Structures are given as C-alpha cells and as structure tokens.
Amino acid sequence: MSKKLIILGAGESGVGSAILGKQKGFEVFVSDFGKINEIYKQVLIHHELDWEEGGHSEEKILPADLVMKSPGIPDTAAIVQRLVGKGVPVISEIEFASRYTDATLVGITGSNGKTTTATLAYEILKQELNVALGGNIGKSFAGLIAENGFENYVLEISSFQLDGTVNFAPNIAVLTNLSPDHLDRYEYDYKKYIASKFKITKNQTEADYFIYDGDDEDILEGLKNHPTKAKKLPFSLTKKVTEGAYLNNKEIIITVNNTQHTMPIATLGLQGQHNTKNAMAASTIATLLKIRKSTIRESLSNFHGVEHRLEKVLKINNVMYINDSKATNVNATFYALDSMEVPTVWIVGGVDKGNDYTSLLPLVNEKVKAIICLGLDNEKIKQSFSNAVDIIVETAGMQEAIKVAYKLAERGDNVLLSPACASFDLFTNYEDRGRQFKEAVRNL
To answer: Where is the Mur ligase C-terminal domain (predicted)?
Structure first.
C-alpha cells in the first residue's frame, strides 16, 4: 500500500513536493485553501496529480501519512491543528526534499542578506561545480531534486521553512544576521524567531560548518542557548578571527582549514558594509568547497546584485529611482537608507509585521526629505516620522506613489522604494511590488 502524502498549498514548494512525492511512490493529493495559480495548475495536470482549490476537504486530508505544508500557512491554521492533533507529521518542503538527496547542501538563512549571499555563492560555485540554487528563491528544492539531481545545492531558507524541519542538516549552514522580523508568526516573541533561525544548525555534526556574523550580538547570544556541534566560522568587520573571515586594511582575509587568501574590498562588485559581509560569507562557502581563489575573486568583482535589492532602475531629470522592494523588514531598510548619499524621497509601507521604526529615526533625520506611504494602514509610519520629516503623503497604489515622488524629487535626489513591510495588502508579493515600481518609473 502506497503511503498518502498530502500537500497543503499549491505554490512553488507545494507543486515541487507533489512531483517528487509521486516519483517516490506516494499517493499524492494537493489542497489549496485559495485559488491555484494557472501556471501551477497546468503543472499538476501535466503530472496527473490530484488537487483541489478553494478549501480543504477534511475527509481527503485527515487520513494522511505525511503532510507537507507550504511556508505561508501558519501552524495555527485549523486544518494543521487537526492533523497535529491526530499525530500526523507535518513538515516543510526543505525537510521532505532533503530526505531524497545525498548532495552537498549549503543552507543560508538570516533576517537580511540571505538572497544576495545565496545568489553570490551560487555564482561562484557554478564556475567549477555542478550546483543548483533554490529553496526560498527561484525553484523549490523538491522540484530541483525531482527534475534532475545536482551534486550541490545552495538553498535560501526562511524561518517558516525551518519551522517544519525535523532532521534537516546542511553540510554548510549560514546565518547572515538577526533582527526582529515576522514577529506576527512568533507570538511577538523575538526569542521564538531566533530559535527558529538556529534550527539551521541544530542537526549539524562535527563534520559540518556553521558560518555566521561574528559582530551580531543576537547571534552570539543565540549560540549560548542553541549550541552547535558544527565547526564555527564567524565573519567580522571589527575583530580578527583565527578561522573564518575578517577585514584588515580594506582587505577581506579568509582562513579555512589552514588555507588563507585575501581580497581587496575595492574590487567587490557590490559596495557597502552589509555587502562586504555577504561577500565574506559567500567566499567562506566557496573556500570550503575548494573553489580556486582566482575564481572567487573574479566572481565577486563581476557580481552586481539581485533584482529588487537596491536595484538602480532609471535616472530621470537627474533623479535616480531605486527599487529595494525586497526590504520587507526594518533592518533591510536601515541598510538601504544608510547607503543613500543624497537627499531621498522614501516610499515605505505595507503590512506591518510588528515593526519598531526607532532605529531608522537618525537616518531619516539625516537623509530623507519626504515620505510617501504605500499601504492600507499607515498610522504607525506617520506617528514614527512626523517629527522628523515635513512632507508625509499617503497614496493608494504604486502609480500614484511614483507620480507624487516625481513631483517631490529635485535634481540630484534619489527616489527609494524600501517598504520595511510585507507586500500582501496591495501586491501579490515583493517581486510584484518591485516590478510595478519599475513599470511606473518607466511610464513617467
């Protein structure tokens, strides 16, 4: 008798898991509470998979042997509670997929910088290795394994994906940094969010590696409560480390397993302190996987960033429009504002996940000339910054926001979309928000 695998949520991770599950001999049923995207629907039909949309049929779901839950579905959802109550294991796609590969796994998590670090690591590794990039970015891990197994995987992993892991243990784990994010999913308890992030190293052994920001107080504190067996490789901008990466006289120095090499930060394709850290993490991964120094150096100088992350879109009337839609939390927006060198019109707002804007106040005072709110509820933003900025305008959508920005910005200014919030009130996701921004700018 084949075992019943139920997939909750028919997005990228759900459909990838369904295909892999069928390949591995499970009887698969896919259930989505909302409407399934047409592209994914066609994939399910093509693979002759059973599915439903617009609700969960308990009679089909509760007899499950195993459930893969999409990261967007909270543990508090009624159907999830019923399954857990019955003792049915509910896991994430990362956990499910990892059971079907012996490949080398690089797992990258963190509040910010994980997409840039994962993409950069992938760009370096693909020069010399058979490697795929997936997880929370691009293709699902399960889908990649089903499609054609790779020898190495670089996975960007969110806290929601880690929540559903049991035995997942990457050979190399990276924790880029920690700052309060998604607290609405963690009962507004930052410690629970930190515990979730540390699950990336929980099952690692002495043969594995844990790369982390050695300057991040929350990570250093977290290591006391969540000790790891893995070999620790910190990266730091402020202190010398014997193993890992640090900065000395504008050079990155990487020391791993008795190999050392250096790289001047002036040659990095991406500038700024946070990008130096991303480069340190990616180079440490590449060094562990024995990539040639010249390849690492060349890849770092050729890499100019990922879409929706401080992406320069267009200069109009000498005003630069910058798309940082991927900044879905306060810490990411902190980096963005910190990197602004000229007066900035800042577009901010969306679904507030329990944000505290206090840390942004000094930067807003120094750099922001006007704020444009882009969200259905902007009270908190207005309260936080009304004393710092004279002009705060509320807008109903991206087109209007860009038109207002065009009027407010003068020659030499920047217009920055860096929302510090989730996008689900007005947009499908942060990519949709970023694309609408770029489109509206190009239509000016």
So the answer is: 308-421
Q: State yes or no: 111 annotated in a binding site.
A: yes
Are 209 and 260 members of one domain?
A: yes
The reply to whether 251 and 372 lie within a common domain is no
Does 388 lie in the same domain as 252? no
Q: Considering all CA atoms of the chain, what is the largest pairwise distance in Å, rounded to the nearest integer?
A: 70
pLDDT, tens digit, 9 for 90 and up, residues 83-117? 999 999 999 999 999 999 999 999 999 988 899 99
pLDDT tens digit sequence for 214-259: 999 999 999 999 999 999 999 999 999 999 999 999 999 999 988 8
Instruction: Determine whether the annotation assigns residue 57 to a binding site.
Output: no
By three-state DSSP, how is residue 347 classified? strand
Tell me which of 66, 91, 116 is where a domain ends.
91
Tally of domains in the chain: 3
User: Annotated binding residue at 116?
Assistant: yes
Please spell the DSSP secondary structure of 83-134, one letter per residue.
Answer: HHHTT--EE-HHHHHHTT--SEEEEEE-SSSHHHHHHHHHHHHTTTS-EEEE
Please indicate if the annotation marks 112 as binding a ligand.
yes
Q: Is 277 annotated as a binding residue?
A: no
> Tell me: the pLDDT tens digits for 228-240?
999 999 999 999 9
Is 301 part of any known ligand binding site?
A: no
> Is this prediction's pTM over 0.70?
yes
